[in-house]
Amino acid sequence: MVAGAIYTAVAFLQRSETLITERCTAAGSGGDDLATDQAANASLITAVAVRRGLPARAASIALATAMQESKLRNIGHGDQAGPDSRGLFQQRPSQGWGTAAQVMDPYHASNAFYDALVEVSGYESMDITVAAQKVQRSAYPGAYAQHQVMARAFASALSGQTPAGLDCSLRSPEAAGDPAAVADELTAALGNLPVSTSGRTLLVDAEGTEAWSVAQWAVANAKTLAITGVEVDGHAWNRQSRDGWQPAQVPAGQVRITVADTPAG
Q: What pLDDT, on a 0 to 100 scale, did the predictor assign at position 36?
C-alpha cells in the first residue's frame, strides 16, 4: 500500500509538471507574457542598459524594438527587406552594425543598439515607437507601438525599478545547477559584482534597485541555469511555489540565488 501511494503521488506530481506552461510575466504587462527564452533575452538586453547606466526608458525602447524585429529571439536569418539582417535587433552588417558574427552576439547587438540610441537627442522623452524608428529606420515604423506596454513592464522589473515585478512559472529542473555558471552569466550581463558561494547558493552583495535587478535577472534565467530560489530585500521567489514573490526573512544588502541539486532518480 505504501509503494502504491508513493507511485500515485509521483505520477500526480509528474502530471502536474506537464500541465505547467512555462512563461514569465511582469507587473503591468497587460497579460503580454514572454516565453522563457524571450524573458532571458529581455533580461540580457535590460542588463546591458543597467550596466551602461542608462535609464529604464532605454531598455523599454530596446525591448519593444527587439520584440518587433525578432520576437526577442536571436534569429540567424533576415527577410526580403533585409536579407542580411540577423540577431535580436535584425541588424544588417551591410549597414554598419558589425560583422555577421557580431550582430548574432546578443551583447554586441544590444550595445550597438544603445550606441545608436544615445545619439538620438531627447530619446528619453520620445514615444517609444518614435525613438525606436530613429535607430532602426524600419519600413513599418508604427509596428513598435504594439509592444510598448510589454516593454515598459519588463524593462521596469528587470532594471529593478519595480521590486517583485517579475515572475516565471517553471517546471522542475532536469539537471543540477552550477553556482559558478550563474556567476559567470551574471558577470557577463551586469558586470563585476561582489559574489561568493555557500554550497549551492550564490551570494551577491547588492542593495536597492541593483539588488532587484540582479534578483529578477536570476528569475528570468532560472530555466536555463536551473535556479530554484532567489532571496532579496525581505522577499523570496521559489520555483516550486507557483505563488511568485513572497515575504521572507531575508537580510538587506545581499541577493541569494540557489541552484538545483542533482535530480533524484
A: 98
